[in-house]
Design brief:
CATH architecture of one domain: Roll
Oligomer: single chain
Protein name: Constitutive photomorphogenesis protein 10
Distance between the termini: 88 Å
Largest sheet: 4 strands, antiparallel
Strand order of the largest sheet: 1-2-3-4
Strand content: 5-15%
CATH superfamily of one domain: Ubiquitin Conjugating Enzyme
Number of strands: 4
Pfam families: UQ_con
CATH class of one domain: Alpha Beta
Number of helices: 8
Shape: globular
Radius of gyration: 29 Å
Helix content: 40-55%
Length: about 210
């Protein structure tokens, strides 16, 4: 009726193992062996001295830095908001904002409230935010999908710019469209050839979609 050494090994491997064996098991289960990519020496393809591992951590750091920058801009925006503008994170995601712009008095967009969707990239402010109009608008610099034809959101972007300056630039398009760099050419032609008719249609769209 006695258990053989083999049975003991199957039933209670650690109670029968020697201290040395337990130590070896612990070493084999250490983080660096289970997850070799976390080791300081770098992962496959990394250069000597930890190139692969360093690159992996850099992206995490840059996301953190962009988050701090966005938080700072949010504080500055709340302390001194641009006229007729509001903006802030949608829920808990600091990289996704919702903004509203009020159509300026004296423009065909007056009385309208226009909603915008703002998405910050992980490498912000080195890349511009993506801004989309969620409210339909009759404008030569805003297409049917809500894309905004503004140079500072593309090739003229600078890390020195802020979301406050972006919203001010977009709002200035309400009173000063740029028909010579349009993303909706037929609206630009209407603006240049028959401004009165253009403004009538823009005002109709404002009543229909932005109120």
């Amino acid at each position: 009726g006695q258990s053989s050494p083999g049975e003991c090994k199957l039933r209670r491997p650690f109670s029968c193992a020697s201290k040395g064996k337990r130590g070896r098991v612990r070493r084999e289960m250490s983080a660096s062996n289970l997850f070799p990519s976390l080791s300081i020496g770098g992962s496959a393809g990394g250069s000597a001295g930890g190139g692969g591992g360093v690159r992996g951590w850099t992206s995490t750091t840059s996301v953190s830095a962009s988050g701090k920058r966005i938080q700072k801009e949010m504080q500055d925006f709340n302390a001194d908001p641009p006229p007729e503008c509001s903006a802030g994170p949608k829920g808990d995601n600091i990289y996704h904002w919702v903004s509203t712009l009020v159509g300026p008095q004296g423009s065909p967009y007056q009385g309208g409230v226009f909603f915008l969707d703002i998405t910050f990239p992980n490498d912000y402010p080195f890349k511009p935010p993506k801004v989309l109009f969620k409210t339909r608008i009759y404008h030569c610099n805003v297409d049917a999908a809500g894309n905004v034809g503004l140079e500072i959101l593309k090739d003229s972007w600078s890390p020195a710019l802020t979301i406050s300056k972006v919203l001010l630039a977009i709002r200035s398009l309400f009173t000063s469209p740029d028909p010579y760099n349009p993303i909706v050419p037929n609206i630009a032609r209407m603006y240049l050839t028959d401004t009165v008719k253009h403004d009538e249609i823009a005002a109709e769209w404002t009543v229909r979609f932005a109120r």
